[in-house]
Structure formats: C-alpha cells, structure tokens
Amino acid sequence: MGTYVPEKVLTNSDLERMVDTSDDWIRCRTGIVERRVVEGDTATSDLAAAAAKKALEDAGINDSEIDLILVATSTPDMIFPSTACLVQSKLGINGCAAFDIQAACSGFVYGLTVASQFIESGMYKTVLLIGADAFTKHINWEDRNTCILFGDGAGAFVLHEVENGYGLLSSYLMADGRGADLLKIPAGGSAHPGSEYSVQNKLHFVQMNGNAVFKFAVRILHEAAIGALTKAGLTVGDIDYLIPHQANIRIIDAAMERLGIDRNKIILNLEKYGNTSTASIPLALYDLYNSGDLKRGDLLLFVGFGAGLTWGANIIRWV
Ligand code: COA
Question: Distance (Å, rounded) from C-alpha 289 to C-alpha 316?
C-alpha cells in the first residue's frame, strides 16, 4: 500500500480570504479543516505514480510481476490516453494491461471490485490498483458551495491472490443515472467540448446540488453497508473498522447512527484532507495501517458514493 498527497496545504482560513465563508462554518457544516492541493502542471497521473511507487516498494515485488494497472479517477490527465497508461509510462513498467475506471467518488470501491474479479477468475495474478484525483483543478474558486469541500491525493494497492476467507469477501455496487445532474463537470467531453462558450459559462468546473447530494449520501451509505454485509453473511457487529468516503462529517454521522456502529470503529481523515474522491478511502486506510492497530483477520467495511450517481461497499478480511 502507498499514498501520496501534494505538499501545499489550503486551510479554511485561506478560503476565508478567497470567498465569503468562515473557518467556523466549514468546520461545523463539513468537518473539514484543511486540504492538500496540487500546484502548477502537476496532474492526476503524477499523484497516482507517486503513490504507486510507494506501494510497489511496500509490496517488495518486481515491476515485471504487475499484470494490470487500474486507475480509478474522474479527473484524468486528459480524455485519452488513459491515466493508467500515463502512470505505466511514469513507472517505467512495460508489458501489462492498463485502463481507467470512472465511477466518481465511488471509484475506489468499484475499482477494488473489478481488480479482484481479474484475480479471482485467474486471468491475472497481480493488479496495481490506484485511486487518484486532482479535483481542485476543476474547482471554481469563486463558488463557496464547492471550493471548500475538495482536496487532492492518491492511494495505491498491489493486489494478489490470498487464502480463502481473506481479502475481498463481498462487494455491493449500485448506480442511478437519473441523478446525473446533481454533481457534474459539464464541459470537456463530447457533449460540450472546450469552447469559448464553455469557458465563459464556467462549464469546466464542478457543479453540485449540495442539499440533494447530502440526502442521497445519508440514505445510500446505510443501504450500501447493509448490502455488502448481507452478501457476506455478516452483521454490523462483526465489523472492526468502517471506512466511509470522506465527504462530510454530518453525512457520515447521520448514516452511521442509522447503522448503529460504534463511533470508535469509524476511520476519519476528512479534517486534514477534505473530499479527495477516489483517494479518500485509501488515504484513511493508510492511516489505519500506519497506526499499527490493523491486525490479521480484522473485518473492514468500505463505503463509497459519488457522482453518477454511484455508490457501493466492500467487505475485506485483512490478511
Ligand atoms: N460558507 C458560508 N456559508 C455558506 C457556504 C460556505 N462555504 N456554502 C453555503 N453557505 C450558505 C448558503 O448560501 C445558505 O445560506 P442561506 O440560508 O442564506 O441561503 C446556508 O449556508 C445553508 O446552505 P446549505 O446549502 O443548506 O448548507 P448545508 O448545511 O447543506 O451545507 C454543503 C452545504 C455543500 C456543505 C452540504 O450540502 C454538503 O456537504 N452536501 C454534500 C456534498 C458532497 O458531499 N459532495 C460530494 C459527494 S461525493
């Protein structure tokens, strides 16, 4: 496992000087205190490659053993080639497959599920899965509804076969395209390619209906958690650690209260990183991994949600 966050810290106090907001408002309404932001021409593939290098070192494997590079991102460097191919080149890895997965902030939960399918089917032995996003490149820094929420980062994992009963035990994936308008970056794709109009109308920035996304998230965090637990034949009481997508502390609190899980089992890092999209679950898991508390046999529940709308959950027994 390896992670990377950019060095530049953007605090709530910094945001107070940019838009009509306050540190107190952001802390109370979101739980976020600061976030990391990329600078200059740093792109998502740079974050992804930096995290991947650490993961490869941590796994102690040879680059040639990687069969597939999978990058979950919704802020790719460009429309094509895929960020996975750019990461492959930056890592100097040759002779493996590479592609991206786009499921917005649910990307890591989706990506882990896809990666594990290749391993379970026997098609590949070793998959490098990376969740990486540079959302702040797509933020309108005059929009206080969105600019306070997001940060940048990446988390990478080297995945391979484990003994029965360990690793990924179940996945629950869901989407509802009827909610596509609630959270989107309208321009830059084939619907609205870059144009004078798209730039003038700020269509290359994140647009969000915050209240609707909030209500959706509270509802589906519970649904996804129960969905993955049921598939694995487990109950909430069996879970040792729950890592929810780090979007807003009030979303997490409301959903977790409904789920009836102990607060001390929930891993949080949104205070220091904000919403890092596909990197948020990996970054939180890395904190837990480094704390030394995680032990063999622990049951982990990951729950993600995001644009699409997409949502999902994974249950993992730590090896
Ligand atoms: N600073 C100060 N005031 C702000 C503000 C900010 N950054 N953003 C909004 N406000 C104001 C609003 O204008 C509104 O003022 P009004 O009552 O005078 O109209 C008031 O605060 C309440 O706005 P509201 O939108 O109801 O706040 P909220 O409690 O719902 O919080 C979000 C807004 C965006 C933090 C919240 O809706 C949210 O987190 N939604 C989910 C977003 C998310 O997770 N997206 C990613 C999903 S992967």
Answer: 14
